[in-house]
C-alpha cells in the first residue's frame, strides 16, 4: 500500500500482520452464558440461525477462530442481544 508523503512523493505503508503484534489478548465467545440467561437450547438456536448443531456447538464452546458477521447478526436477532453481549476481550 502506498501513501503520499509530505514532500509529495509516494512512500510505502507497512501494515502489521499477525507476526508483528504481541499476543496480549484474545476474543472469547460467551454464547453459552447468553443462551442460559435466555433459556434457549442449542437445537432451538441452531434452527433459528440456520446452521448445524455441530457448528453452533463449536461457537458456543469457543472452539472457533472466526465467525461470520451474518451468523453473529442472526444469533443476536434470535437471542435479542448485542454482539458485545456475546464477544468479550480477555487479556492473556
Please give the structural blueprint.
Layout: E1 2-4, E2 10-12, E3 26-29, H1 31-38, H2 42-49, H3 53-60, H4 69-79, H5 83-86, E4 87-90
Protein name: XRE family transcriptional regulator
GO molecular function: DNA binding
Domain HTH cro/C1-type: 31-86
Protein model, in words:
- The protein is an alpha+beta fold and 92 residues long.
- The protein has one domain: Orthogonal Bundle (434 Repressor (Amino-terminal Domain)), CATH 1.10.260.
- The protein has five helices and four strands.
- It has a two-stranded antiparallel ribbon with strand order 1-2. It has a two-stranded antiparallel ribbon with strand order 3-4.
- The longest helix is centred in the last third of the chain and has 11 residues, at 69-79.
- The protein is elongated.
- It starts with a strand and ends with a strand.
- The relative contact order is 0.20.
- The model has no long low-confidence stretch (mean pLDDT 87).
The SSE order reads: EEEHHHHHE
Distance between the terminal alpha carbons, to the nearest Å? 31 Å
Shape: elongated
**CATH fold title:** 434 Repressor (Amino-terminal Domain)
Number of strands: 4
The low-confidence runs, each spanning 5 or more residues with pLDDT under 50, are: none
The top level CATH class name: Mainly Alpha
Which bin fits the share of residues in helices? 40-55%
- CATH H-tier superfamily: lambda repressor-like DNA-binding domains
* Percent of sequence in beta strands: 15-25%
Mean pLDDT: 87
**Biggest β-sheet, characterized?**
2 strands, antiparallel
Please identify the structural class as seen in this structure: alpha+beta
The CATH architecture category equals Orthogonal Bundle
Helix run count: 5
Q: Give the strand order of the largest sheet, numbering strands 1, 2, ... along the chain.
A: 1-2
The figure for the number of domains is 1
Amino acid at each position: 500500500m502506498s501513501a503520499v508523503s509530505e514532500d509529495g512523493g509516494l512512500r510505502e505503508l507497512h501494515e502489521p500482520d499477525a507476526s508483528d503484534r504481541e499476543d496480549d489478548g484474545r476474543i472469547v465467545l460467551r454464547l453459552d452464558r447468553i443462551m442460559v440467561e435466555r433459556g434457549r437450547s442449542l437445537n432451538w438456536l441452531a434452527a433459528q440461525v440456520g446452521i448445524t448443531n455441530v457448528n453452533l456447538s463449536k461457537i458456543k464452546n469457543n472452539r472457533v477462530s472466526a465467525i461470520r458477521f451474518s451468523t453473529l447478526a442472526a444469533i443476536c436477532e434470535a437471542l435479542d442481544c448485542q454482539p458485545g453481549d456475546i464477544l468479550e476481550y480477555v487479556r492473556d
